[in-house]
Specification:
By secondary structure, the chain is mainly alpha-helical. The chain has helices spanning 11-15, 41-49, 54-64, 73-91, 97-107, and strands at residues 3-4, 19-20.
Length: 111
């Protein structure tokens, strides 16, 4: 059986978003591969919920070299302030420097 989350004649189905194909036997177990395109609106909703965007954070840290351990603490904190200001400006969130620093310290170990 093949199904989609959106009706076949809807805009979502025509654009290819939210479509999913599965082979489902009568008892409901999934057999076969599932291929789902990720709807880009998830980024919007994640941002609205206040989720920190690791990709953007990583790019800003690289841009300002905020993770450079050879500089003294005050210079790093000043760079993190720049990262925080630009992150909040781009996303519209109101995260503080400490929250972004904590998120980065835990996220960089999982790369």
């Amino acid at each position: 059986m093949t199904y989609t989350y959106a009706p076949p004649d809807s805009e979502a189905a025509r654009s290819g978003y939210q479509s999913q194909s599965q082979n489902l036997p009568a008892h409901g177990r999934q057999t076969g591969d599932v291929k789902v395109k990720v709807d880009p609106s998830f980024n919007y909703y994640d941002n609205a919920r206040g989720k920190i965007n690791n990709e953007l954070l990583s790019k800003l840290i690289d841009k300002y070299d905020a993770d450079n351990t050879t500089d003294n603490k005050q210079i790093r904190l000043d760079r993190w302030t720049l990262v925080t200001d630009e992150y909040c400006q781009i996303t519209g969130q109101t995260k503080n420097r400490t929250a972004l620093m904590k998120r980065w310290s835990s996220a960089k170990y999982y790369k």
